[in-house]
Amino acid sequence: MKKTMESADTPVLMNQKTHAVFEGGEHGKSLAELCRELLSDQKKTWPACRQGYEFLRSMVVRDISCSEFSVRVQHNSGRMKSTLADVRKEAVNDRPCFLCLDHLPEKQKGIRYRNEYLILCNPMPVFPFHFTVSCLDHHPQTVRGKIDTLLQLAADFGSDWTVLYNGPRCGASAPDHLHFQVVPAGHMPVEKDIHGKDRFSLAARLDGVLLHSAKNLGREIVALEADSTIALTRVFDDFLKVLAEALLLDKEPMINVAAFCAGHSLRLLVFPRRKHRPEAFFRKGDDRVTVSPAVIEMGGVLVTPFQRDFERLNEEVVKDIYREVSLEGEIVQKVIDRLV
């Protein structure tokens, strides 16, 4: 199956798909402003986008207290396709890459970002603003060597936004094409949890980078914070390398990442994983629980397209899901110890 876009028509198609261009600098509109305008336009001109945001109007949420922490459950039937996505290698190889430029829907347009990415409106949003940042070239999904892009996006969008990454084996619905997501800051419970001194403890200081580990949040989370992008990138890359070595992997470990600005600092939240989906996802009939944990779920917003799962999710089920898909704390601690 041809995945990439190699033709003389590429520049023409690029122009057709470009709503606006962002190259950085202080002149012109901010990236966030350009993206808001893009979404407003796409709701008018692209029916699938408009329908996706209409689903949000009927979205229902409720909070679940899990003793030491809380999560928000969202019933969103518009996320059906994403939640149930078949990400097996053979399935991915047998379908056109829906993030490649020549496979985008006819009406879809984006913001050309620093000549390497196209920022698109996600037609299956979880939040009132939900963007996908897709690489213009068809590269596999990986954060190795790309964390600087994640941090640059966080800086360009500013403190009102959170930039997200799903690993190819733990949440990315397009594991064959490099992409990130951007959503409004403050919608995931973990973003509030990190401010509690009883939630994250300082584990190490590494070249000006503060490394914190989560306590009593039901899943393993490592927080990295620094004023220097270079230092933060170096420590993250070291963490990823040591984690791969600890798991005896020659490929990227299963992780989800959230990045955002905090004043003059940049912060990364890393969710080490051992599984993509819990066993309950694969059960038959009424025993099935249709929650497919990706970075948003690991951040504390559990999305399900089915009313029955929305109603029956409780503290026990939530804790079981996190316990099953999150990497063991002992392994994470060993990785931290090796870094220090």
UniProtKB/TrEMBL annotation:
InterPro entries cross-referenced by the UniProt entry: DUF4922, GDPGP1_C, HIT-like_sf
Provenance organism: Syntrophorhabdus aromaticivorans
GDPGP1-like C-terminal domain boundaries: 260-335
Residues in DUF4922 domain copies: 38-183
One Pfam family, short name: DUF4922
Organism classification: Bacteria, Pseudomonadati, Thermodesulfobacteriota, Syntrophorhabdia, Syntrophorhabdales
Name the record gives this protein: DUF4922 domain-containing protein
